[in-house]
Design brief:
Layout (H helix, E strand, L loop, with lengths): L6 H7 L17 H15 L9 E3 L2 H14 L9 E3 H10 L1
Parallel strand pairs: 1-2
Helix pairs in contact: 1-2, 2-3
């Protein structure tokens, strides 16, 4: 299992739907873990359609690590949103 989540991480994970939030934190502080748990919360507890969740990463390594972390946390494959790099998202967008 992973480290217990801090009260700050829990607040981000359970942030109200439809309200903007800004998450600022130093490297290694758990932003990725927090966002993975946020997605888990949205798709399993709030029944948000994963196709309505946009996940963008800077590069393929970060994308792969994020996808791996979704699986590690236990988010079923059918409930995982697509994870794009900025480049792949832009390419898909232009293609449409």
């Amino acid at each position: 299992a992973s480290d217990p989540l801090t009260p700050e991480q829990q607040a981000v994970i359970r942030h109200p739907l439809g309200e903007h939030a800004r998450v600022l934190a130093v490297a290694g502080s758990g932003k990725t873990t927090t966002m993975v748990h946020r997605i888990d919360y949205l798709v399993r507890e709030k029944q948000v359609n994963p196709a309505k969740i946009r996940v963008l990463m800077f590069n393929r390594l970060a994308r792969r690590q994020f996808q791996d972390k979704l699986s590690e946390v236990g988010v079923p494959k059918n409930l995982q949103p697509e994870v794009h790099t900025f480049h792949s998202f832009a390419y898909q967008f232009i293609g449409e």
